[in-house]
Amino acid sequence: MAEAENKMGVMPVKRLIVNMSLPMMASMLVQALYNIVDSIFVSQISETALTAVTLAFPMQNLMIAVGSGTGVGINALLSRSLGEKRFDRSDNAANTGIAVIFLSYLVFALIGFFFARSFVSLQTPNEEVRELGATYLRICCTMSVGIFFQMTFERLLQSTGRTVYSMISQLTGAVINIIFDPILIFGLFGLPKLGVAGAAYATVLGQMVAAVIGLVLNVRKNEEIHLSIRSILHPDGWTVRRIYAVAIPSIAMISIGSVMTFLMNLILQPFTETAQAVFGAYFKLQSFFFMPVFGLNNGLIPVLAYNYGAKKKKRITESLSFAMKLAVGIMLVGMLILEIFPTQLLGLFDASENMLVIGVPALRIIGLTLPIAGLCIALGSVFQAFSRSMNSLIVSVGRQLVVLIPVAYLLSKTGNVANVWWAFPVAECASLMISLVLFKRLYQEIIVPM
Hints:
By secondary structure, the protein is mainly alpha-helical. The chain has one domain (7-447). It contains 17 helices and no strands. Helix 1 packs antiparallel against helix 2 (47-83).
């Protein structure tokens, strides 16, 4: 019987976590590399172009929030149903998830078509930045069908433990993006020089290819899920409610990042557009360290959810302990890199002298928060796997809106932009305290009696 069970219930825990997470960590590292390369090419157009893409980021992050959060809901329900051997429910989770994600795409296509310029204009009075940002954002939103389906199909592969196939999908999309960025931005090989619009087209092209690959891999390789056009066209109401019971808090949690970046851009605007560009550069750089931890998190959630459904307490605690140590270790490396090489990292974005003056202390101050953030992400995986995503929402709201933005605003009143960055360490410490309190309560209520 052990041989017939999914590997998430029988494989040695440390090997399982590595087996589940390593492919996603590798693919997310490439994804982070693509994020950095994308901005590097854009910065070669001008600092104004880099600022424009930075101001479009909150809306892009909102799309990721909806796609990823819905994927978390699908993943949690599907993995738990597999652990309980409720295969009808796992199939409903997959097919219904595809239906609701398409509706999400339609909403953002309309937002991008009608409101892209208005959104960017709220964050800057500079007409050139507005025009470039609106062009970039309109393309990314109206053609975002790729990113929504890419994330959904990857989640389906992850939820059954097929993380290598998920990696293939994501890696292919990222590589295509990296290849076509310089070609479309600078007009290589006889193609037209599209500038910022070229960066957007390269992005959506990579996402669409990744989505197609993800669909093919699910149909041909994911034997525990049975996709059906009929089921997709007739989504199950109970399944929709169960998916969004987990997804809405997850969407809200990730969306808070969009609100935070939008408000931070407003706080930094009175100083200089260069400060906004620094903030954008930091976000690209930090993704290189956060993405592997998110890959670890994505590999950990189905393991926790499966063993929660199977009532295997020891595997849950062992998985979490190992993942926490691994997350903190990754982030310690990230912290050291930001502390030692801030000038070289900003140089990747063709940083001016003024950008270095603002950016070097910014990277060193915010870099101090990375190990704490890694621990909080690992703890958050428990909340998501056990359908307690509201806890993750509480942590995220507390960190980014209750603490970070008010503290950053107050520090901005000192007139020194370097002081604003200290809001990040303050917020991360608050996040850790809230996470520990909520985790202790969950542990006593669910894991101890198991």
